[in-house]
Write a structure and sequence with these properties.
Number of strands: 16
Largest sheet: 4 strands, mixed
Helix content: 25-40%
CATH architecture of the domain at 52-138 and 175-222 and 230-350: Alpha-Beta Complex
Bound molecules: arginine
CATH topology of the domain at 52-138 and 175-222 and 230-350: Nitric Oxide Synthase, Chain A, domain 1
Structural class: alpha+beta
Radius of gyration: 22 Å
Order of helices and strands: HHHEHEEEEHEEEEEEEEEHHHEHHE
């Protein structure tokens, strides 16, 4: 998961390529092409120290990476991942255009499409493109005299953007600019066009006062800071998205004390005594927040899943993988929803957290102090 970018080594590249090609082409029922393709890659690496994936390898490799993502509960849908090939866009402007198109395609008016856009991978150890944002759409966070405004998780990145001349409006929900690093230039900043940011105001199905909290969230989480490794190649810019599970927003982004931290206010409004742990005010506030998020996304026709349904889908994924003769790996602490976890089958099982490739890996943020 946290694994540094491996050092460039053409021998290892060939070995990793071979392993990937065998598995990929076997899964695609193209066994007869394996030896020929490996020979081709071998001479390509001998001549250039590098090789390029075909469109089919790229598509299936990216889908395998999702299937291998141990922390993801949504993996039932790995085969439906839409793979966009943007390897020919390497200027900051070109990358920016692709990211905008990704947002539009993935958002799809609320009928969210799981999508990944792949930019040129590292070539002989040299990085071509990197996106500094954690997600393509995310809210800024500002330190003020009255505490943090916005998302406290974005403080450092926001400061970096401000140091480059960006100015946010200073609300709780300012969309951060895109920061794109290429070989040619210093990282460049671009605003995300407003019309590409679908957002959902949070209201509650039963409590009219809920909208007075002024909560909102964006529709599509596009993780953009992870590297994707396929067949020994490092895709350092490979933003990908699915749709949200409501607990990610309601329990964690809104509920965590070091994020928007709204449980005390919600509990207050519900008329609960927040000085007594044993009246379970936090639990009740969590449930109402989750109902509000699910209700609001549904009201606006934006795709979202509740944690019970997501767990059932994950169970179906486990059955399908077993039928395909593959072991499911998983990180139980991440697969468990952050509330009501014992009501899901995941709670009652063990998971092997071995990391298979293709996969997504974290890197230290370039702006971190
Ligand atoms: N947990 C992250 C967030 O709240 C999103 C991570 C990806 N989630 C997803 N459903 N694909 O923004």
């Amino acid at each position: 998961m946290h694994a540094p970018v491996p050092e460039y080594d053409p021998e290892r590249l060939l070995a990793d390529a071979e392993t990937f090609i065998r598995q990929c082409y076997t899964e695609l029922d193209r066994e007869d092409e394996i030896e020929g393709r490996i020979a081709e890659i071998e001479s390509e690496i001998e001549e250039t120290g590098h090789y390029e994936h075909t469109a089919a390898e790229l598509e299936h490799g990216a889908r395998m990476a999702w299937r291998n993502s141990n922390r993801c509960i949504g993996r039932l849908f790995w085969e439906s991942l839409n793979v966009r090939d943007a390897r020919d866009r390497s200027s900051a402007e070109g990358v920016y255009e692709e990211l905008c198109e990704h947002l539009e395609y993935a958002t799809n008016g609320g009928d969210i499409r799981p999508t990944i856009t792949l930019f040129e991978p590292m070539v002989r150890g040299d990085q071509q493109v990197r996106i500094w944002n954690y997600q393509l759409i995310r809210y800024a966070g500002y330190e003020t005299d009255d505490g943090v405004v916005g998302d406290p998780d974005s403080l450092e990145f926001t400061e970096y953007c401000q140091s480059k001349g960006w100015e946010g409006e200073g609300t709780d929900y300012d969309v951060l600019p895109l920061v794109i690093e290429t070989t040619e230039e210093e990282p460049e900043l671009f605003e995300v066009p407003e019309e590409l940011v679908l957002e959902v105001p949070i209201t509650h199905p039963d409590y009219a006062w809920f909208d007075e909290l002024g909560l909102q969230w964006y529709a599509v989480p596009v993780v953009s800071n992870m590297r994707l490794e396929i067949g020994g190649l490092q895709y350092t810019a490979a933003p990908f998205n699915g749709w949200y599970m409501a607990t990610e927003i309601a329990a964690r982004n809104f509920g965590d004390e070091d994020r928007y931290d709204v449980l005390p206010e919600v509990a207050d409004r519900l008329g609960l005594n927040t000085n007594r742990n044993r009246n379970l005010w936090k639990d009740e506030a969590l449930v109402e927040l989750n109902r509000a998020v699910l209700h609001s996304f549904e009201r606006d026709g934006v795709k979202i899943v509740d944690h019970h349904t997501a767990a059932e889908q994950f169970e179906a994924f486990e059955r399908r993988e077993e039928a395909a003769g593959r072991d499911v790996t998983g990180d139980r602490s991440w697969l468990l929803p952050p509330m009501s976890s014992s009501t899901t089958h995941i709670f009652h099982k063990k998971y092997d957290n071995e990391i298979n490739t293709p996969n997504f890996f974290y890197r230290p943020a370039p702006y971190e102090k």
